[in-house]
Design a protein that fits this description.
Radius of gyration: 20 Å
Shape: globular
Strand content: 15-25%
Largest sheet: 5 strands, mixed
Length: about 350
């Protein structure tokens, strides 16, 4: 477990700002916190991630994004005290990347992301900048735990389904990173869950294993479940059938959430199926770390209040059916508070805490 703790703030706020860079499958989001751990802006700056073009293209975009954030907020580059970087895992403590559902280009394998971003920022900003690295699930969990329990007295896990399924664990204000930085890969915990379409074959996770939670609860899982579902006669005229693209199943999967939010029966059923699986994963998490609460974030809960309420209700019910009695009664399953900015703000918090520990 890491020694850096979010609750161990210095008595005097640090000078400068701590920029957080959240690298996702399609976009990079940038915001910052000040030395008092308050967000610098109510809005983040965004640029395309270009992960499909390989790591060097993404690193270039990070440098562009940091510059854009400074311009958007009328800040000089000298205001930056440090930069916190996050990306989809798995990756080690030094930001050496392994391929994932979000990082499929072959050059991502073994890419030294933290080191490469530090070099790119030095070139772009004209001075050396300290860059820290977190897995995106860890970064989001760090911020959600900090804003929900700033005194740092809880055991908390976060599950963030999006393109993949990120996770993070915070214990008494400290991230559980593990010996190599690869702890809390909760999307790769195996669960027992049926395929969405009865009689169809369940598709393996992007990591190659057959029953990872991510293979049921993610956009990637939807893309794999849709062919069998749309092949059924009753779905022959479904709106998803009209979507055509180079990566047609991913394009269709990305439209499941907005259609579910509008009340489409098939798309709501897909989210119900995923929510039941998420409740099963919550049981595994509860048995492993005995948390005070489990926070649900990611794109999974960004379909509006009605759909999110439905997701949370089914997830809680699924969990309570199979959890130990005390866990069913006492473990709180909550919606994330910071929405899509949790990752970049958590990365910024990690950079802030690391910098304070060096002072």
């Amino acid at each position: 477990m890491a020694k850096r703790s979010a609750k161990s703030a210095s008595k005097r706020p640090s000078k400068g700002i701590y920029v957080g860079v959240d690298v996702g499958a399609t976009k990079i989001g940038i915001n910052a916190i000040d030395g008092a751990r308050k967000p610098v802006s109510a809005h983040w700056s965004q640029v395309p991630a270009r992960t499909e073009d390989g790591p060097r293209a993404t690193v270039e975009q990070i440098a562009v994004g940091v510059r854009l954030f400074l311009d958007d907020n009328n800040l000089p580059s000298s205001a930056i005290a440090a930069v916190g970087l996050d990306s989809p895992g798995p990756a080690d403590n030094n930001g050496v990347i392994q391929p994932s559902a979000n990082m499929k280009h072959p050059e991502w394998a073994g890419f030294k992301m933290r080191e490469s971003v530090a070099k790119a920022l030095k070139k772009s900003l004209g001075r050396k900048i300290t860059v820290t690295y977190e897995n995106d699930g860890n970064a989001a969990a760090y911020w959600e735990s900090f804003i929900g329990n700033p005194e740092g007295t809880e055991v908390m896990a976060m599950l963030a389904p999006g393109t993949g399924l990120g996770g993070g664990i915070v214990i008494n204000g400290r991230l559980l990173r593990g010996a190599r930085g690869m702890a809390a890969e909760l999307g790769h915990v195996e669960i027992v869950h049926p395929a969405f379409t009865p009689g169809s074959e369940h598709q393996a996770c992007g990591c190659g294993q057959p029953y990872c939670a991510e293979s049921y609860i993610s956009v990637s899982a939807l893309a794999k479940a849709l062919p069998a579902a749309l092949a059924l006669p009753e779905n022959a005229d479904h709106p998803l059938q009209q979507i055509q693209a180079d990566n047609v199943w991913k394009a269709r999967a990305l439209q499941v959430r907005p259609l579910a939010a509008k009340g489409d029966a098939l798309c709501q059923a897909l989210f119900d199926w995923q929510s039941e699986a998420l409740g099963k994963l919550c049981r595994q998490v509860a048995d492993s770390i005995d948390p005070d609460r489990i926070v649900i974030g990611g794109g999974f809960i960004e379909g509006g209040k009605k759909l999110t309420d439905r997701i949370m209700k089914i997830t809680r019910e699924s969990f309570k059916k199979i959890a130990f009695v005390k866990h069913a009664r006492e473990v709180r399953i909550e919606k994330a508070q910071a929405d899509d900015q949790a990752g970049c703000l958590g990365a910024a918090l990690s950079a802030c805490v690391a910098e304070e520990s060096r002072q």
